[in-house]
Design goal:
It is found in: Cell outer membrane. InterPro entries: Fimb_usher, FimD_plug_dom, PapC-like_C, PapC-like_C_sf, PapC_N, PapC_N_sf. GO terms for molecular function: fimbrial usher porin activity. This is Fimbrial biogenesis usher protein. By secondary structure, the protein is mostly beta strands. Helix content is 4%, strand content 51%. It contains 6 helices and 53 strands. The longest helix is centred in the first third of the chain and has 11 residues. The chain is globular and about 105 Å long. The two termini are 30 Å apart.
């Protein structure tokens, strides 16, 4: 009969102590011998006698300062001398000077902290009165509360520049290729954005190749959109750019230049704007190609289905500058309109100075303009009581401009700015002019009413006012043509028209949205530009309504656009409807299956010329990560009474995005495709990726192949364990986490979360300590007995550690197939043994391997 095992004695002892409290007047003590057959079978566990105790050492914890996440760090912990709460595990952190610097502590105000040596533990509670430290061992979260007077900068989100990461040396390449093979014409577009990072410097080039063939004529062109070098100037909180770039648009209109620019970087400051890019909306009557130009360069070219569309991922070449949108329909007709691209009123916090200095040659993508040398300087100052004062000047050989303005935060009434620009100009015919321009901007979010005035602006210019862009024209008037023949008539299409005798007079810009609660929302976007010398105006407006009920969404939109000097007015109204299949399966809002993620769609449109069309179809997402989108439609148009149809799919893959589509309308058939991705060359090799952003993160987890990155659709590590997380936020903490559920059986990671703070344009590295090997549950025997419970285990070659459990069982991960374990249960040579082991190769494919080993 086997001897009884006393594993459950702690429960019995606790019950006795409760029933007879007089037995517990002295310190409670549990005999470790009860854990096994005798004291010899248990290691020295004295450090755990007090209960709720953890072993001191180095732990990786999340640090929160005043309820704000600071980062994930390896922090040394010591045994607490006082009586901490049970959640702390009997530990207290060793908070060093480096940690306090990272948290933004003002050392000058606390002499005790100023004398700390590197690595020395700070007496935080006595040195900073009012500070508190709380540690939760279960969640590995360290909460540190510091009074605001102890901080160098009280702004929320402040990260000291010492923590900014300039990144690693790297070569970068972004590519985007789209093409169309049609019955009557072919067109291709390739955009390449290459770069080199070294230290704080970033060298960039942006170029595009375009090819078109129609009616026997071909056009083949390579455009160098820009080449420049830039770097951060941290002491000035500024950016330096040398080469091809664009000026800011705070005071003057943005223009391209080739030269140098030094300007304040808003993103280096806490709680500052991260930038703005407009959403380009429109209505396509048929499957169409959308081309967007800025400053004469094609910055976007893609394909959309019939109905309303919205392009939200636009990456303009400059921070401002109007966007010229062309929608090329399959029947040869075209829509053209301009989307204004400006920022909200110019407001700065009190005491903040923002400057922008530029010197260089004027540069545009238009061969009909000169390249005069000019200088520009602007300054914006934040004053007290919510006022902002700003101004600037532009100087060239044939142009002089001076601007002065002010802005005011009106509290509940929003924000407003007003400025006046005076300019002297000499035009292409050598005529001289002098005039003024008054600009008004207003922005307000009426949360109570659901109204958001994203931008409401008006500019009035006198007859003698001209801009630097106007002065650069070689001729007083003329048409500018695109390189492609959109209507297949053998003639190039008109892209724009200018007439300096019709200089700009009044311009209204509006971008308003109104929430209607459960009844949907309304939006109005548009602009209207009037001119001196003509009653015609350039107009673009879009009015829309969108709503939904029980997963069914619907929208109605109306657009109107007209350009001065170009015949024709486009007025289009469209209706869109989307019904989820889950409504019929009874799964309500669940989207677990591909069927429930499918939608029935319908759209219809009608133009002012009487052309109407309608389409019905099915769209949805496939694959486990829902990274494959598809759409199939069938429709009809009254223009010739032809039927039309389309099918498209877009796959967001690990190494890029791939899209393909097929369209037909009557006898016309078209096949289009889009391919984009990125490539990064670094010290450890070459890594392919999805399209890169301006700032990116290189993930290094050697050997951990096929591991997904949390919150990054389609991003996985390659066969070497590397991946790129694009579009990192500059000067802010970026959380990078590996999805441990996607790791293979032979992969483990010491910690799956890291955080980085990149500077602008950097490629920062987030490294993870991976263990590639076997997961094993080994039973170690010593002198025909299991090794003592609680003994410490270490693999002598790679340093993997663990602890012995019941019956000599040891769980280890990342083990090599052959190695040696060192097992210690006390001090001296008699309290340790070594256990060599060998595991079969099939262990690498198993979830866990069981084996008994001998320890001598």
């Amino acid at each position: 009969m086997p001897k009884p095992r006393w594993r459950y004695c702690p429960v019995a002892l606790a019950l006795m102590a409760t029933l007879w409290p007089q037995l517990s007047l002295s310190e409670s003590y549990f005999n470790p011998a009860f854990l096994s057959d005798g004291a010899a079978s248990v290691a020295d566990l004295s450090q755990f006698e007090q209960g709720h105790r953890q072993a001191p050492g180095l732990y990786r914890v999340d640090i929160w300062r005043n309820d704000e996440f600071i980062g994930t760090l390896d922090v040394p912990f010591q045994t607490a001398e006082d009586d901490p709460p049970p959640s702390a595990g009997g530990l207290t952190p060793c908070i060093t000077r480096a940690m306090l610097e990272r948290m933004g502590v003002n050392f000058a105000a606390f002499p005790t902290l100023a004398t700390l040596a590197a690595g020395q533990c700070a007496p935080l509670k006595t040195a900073i009165p009012g500070s508190e430290v709380a540690f939760n061992f279960a969640s590995l979260r360290l909460n540190i509360s510091l009074p605001q007077v102890a901080m160098q900068n009280s702004a929320r989100g402040y990260i000291p520049p010492e923590q900014w990461d300039e990144g690693i040396p790297a070569m970068l390449l972004n590519y985007s290729f789209s093409g169309n093979r049609g019955s009557d014409d072919d067109s291709y577009y390739l955009n390449l954005q290459s770069g080199l990072n070294y230290g704080a410097w970033r060298l960039r080039n942006n170029g595009a190749w375009r090819y078109s063939s129609s009616n026997g004529t071909r056009h083949n062109e390579w455009q160098n959109i820009g080449t420049w070098a830039q770097r951060t100037v941290i002491p000035l909180k500024s950016e330096l750019v040398l080469g091809d770039n664009n000026t800011g648009n705070d005071v003057f209109d943005s223009v391209g230049f080739r030269g140098g620019r030094l300007y304040s970087s808003d993103s280096m400051y806490p709680d500052s704007m991260q930038g703005y890019a407009p959403t380009v909306r429109g209505i396509a009557r048929t499957p169409a190609k959308v081309v967007i130009r800025q400053n004469g360069y094609v910055v976007y070219q893609g394909y959309v289905q019939a109905g309303g569309f919205a392009i939200t991922d636009l990456n303009p070449t400059s921070s401002s500058g109007d966007l010229d949108v062309t929608v090329e329909e399959k029947d040869g007709s075209q829509q053209r309109y301009v989307v204004p691209y400006s920022t909200v009123p110019l407001l700065q916090r009190e005491g903040r100075l923002k400057y922008d200095l530029v010197a260089g040659d004027y540069r545009s993508g238009n061969s009909d303009q000169n390249t005069p040398f000019f200088t520009q300087g602007t300054l914006i100052a934040g004053l007290t009581n919510g006022y902002t004062l700003y101004g600037g000047t532009q100087l060239a050989s044939r142009y002089t401009a001076l601007a002065l303005g002010a802005g005011k935060n009106l509290g509940d009434w929003g924000a407003v700015s007003l400025d006046l620009t005076h300019a002297r100009s000499q035009l292409a015919d050598d005529s001289r002019h002098e005039g003024q321009s008054l600009r008004f901007l207003y922005a307000k979010s009426l949360n109570r009413f659901g109204t958001n005035f994203q931008l409401l602006g008006y500019r009035y210019s006198t007859k003698g006012f001209y801009t630097l862009d106007d002065v650069a024209w070689r001729v007083m008037e003329g048409y500018q043509y695109s390189d492609e023949d959109g209507d297949n008539d053998g003639l190039p299409d008109v892209q724009s028209y200018h007439n300096l005798a019709w200089n700009k007079k009044g311009r209204l810009q509006v971008n308003i949205s109104q929430s209607l609660g459960d009844y949907g929302s309304l939006y109005l976007s548009g602009s209207e530009q009037t001119y001196w010398g003509t009653r015609d105006a350039s107009t673009w407006y879009q009015l829309g309504y969108a709503g939904g009920v029980k997963g069914v969404s619907y929208s109605v939109s109306w657009s109107w656009n007209q350009a001065v000097g170009i015949d024709g007015t486009d007025k289009i109204v469209a209706f869109n409807l989307s019904v989820p299949f889950s409504l019929f399966s009874g799964h309500a809002y669940r989207r677990d299956s591909a069927f429930d993620r499918a939608y029935a769609t319908a759209s219809a449109s009608r133009s002012s010329e009487g052309d109407s069309s309608w389409q019905t179809g099915v769209s949805g997402t496939l694959l486990d990560d829902r990274n494959l989108n598809y759409s199939v439609t069938q429709g009809h148009s009254n223009n010739g009474g032809v039927s039309s149809g389309s099918a498209s799919a877009n796959w967001l893959a690990t190494y890029g995005t791939l899209g393909a589509g097929y369209n037909y309308s009557g006898s016309q058939h078209d096949l289009n495709w889009q391919l984009s991705g990125g490539m990064v060359g670094h010290a450890d090799g070459v890594t392919l990726s999805q399209p890169l952003g301006d700032t990116n993160v290189l993930i290094k987890a050697p050997g951990a192949s096929g591991v997904s990155i949390e919150n990054q659709t389609g991003v996985k590590t390659d066969w070497r364990g590397y991946a790129v997380m694009p579009y990192a936020t500059v000067y802010r903490y970026n959380r990078v986490a590996l999805n441990t559920n996607t790791m293979s059986n032979n992969t483990d990671v010491e910690n799956n979360v890291s955080s980085v703070v990149p500077t602008k344009g950097a490629l920062v590295r987030a490294s993870f300590d991976t263990r590639i090997g076997v997961r094993a549950l080994l039973t170690a025997m010593h002198a025909n007995q299991p090794v003592p419970f609680g003994a410490v285990v270490r693999e002598v070659n790679i340093g993997v550690t663990s602890m012995v459990g019941d019956d000599g069982q040891i769980y280890l991960s990342g083990l090599p197939l052959a190695g040696e374990l060192l097992i210690q249960w006390g001090n001296g040579a008699s309290a340790q043994c070594r256990a060599p082991y060998t595991l079969p190769e099939t262990s690498l494919q198993q979830a866990i391997t069981l084996k008994e080993i001998r320890c001598d």
